[in-house]
Amino acid sequence: MVETTLSGATHHILTNDYASEWMGIEVLKIDDGHATIRMHLRQEMLNGFGMAHGGMIFAFADTAFALACNPANPTPKQAANITVASGVDINFIKPAFEGQVITAVANRRASTGRSGLYDIQIYAASPGAAGATPDPDPGELIAEFRGRSRTISKK
Fold first, then answer.
1. Which of 26, 33, 86, 120 could bond 108 through an S-S bridge, CB–CB 3.0 to 4.6 Å?
2. Are the C-beta atoms of residues 120 and 144 closer than 8 Å to each other?
3. What pLDDT, on a 0 to 100 scale, did the predictor assign at position 6?
4. End-to-end Cα spacing for the chain
5. Which class for 25: exposed (0-12), middle (13-18), buried (19 or more C-beta within 10 A)?
6. How far is the C-alpha of 29 from the C-alpha of 8, rounded, in Å?
7. Which regions of the chain does DSSP assign to beta strands (E)?
8. Neighbouring residues of 123: CB distance < 8 A, sequence distance ≥ 6
9. Matching CATH number, 12-153, of 3.30.70.260, 3.40.50.720, 3.10.129.10, 3.40.1000.10
10. How far is residue 92's CA from residue 136's CA, in Å, rounded to a whole number?
């Protein structure tokens, strides 16, 4: 999978992430404890009501969470570990629909020892409003995801 996107942001964990590749996730920004990603909602991502399937929104937010939890360019010491979800909650606020562009903005709220707390906001906008730059208007808030992380050994 090609990791370079409109902003040039990359992350090594996407190399073999076939789910994120299938979803067409674009990385807009990555920084320590933060990530912004974008995806276009396609027909096969909809539920029987014609709106984005909750599982698709969850998977999208979970990818932003993973990118924020794990350094894009790890030091050798960091590379010996991975950070995974220990628990998550999601609240769906509004539906999103085919053709809309959704953006997830992930931010670390707290970190101590091997544990972390992250908030991810998911927004939906019409394709024109989403633009072709890393800093488009993200649109209306459609969901909020809170993730609890744990850093563990790769072994």
1. 33
2. yes
3. 44
4. 25
5. buried
6. 8
7. 26-31, 34-40, 81-92, 101-112, 115-125, 140-153
8. 102, 103, 104, 105, 138, 139, 140, 141, 142
9. 3.10.129.10
10. 22
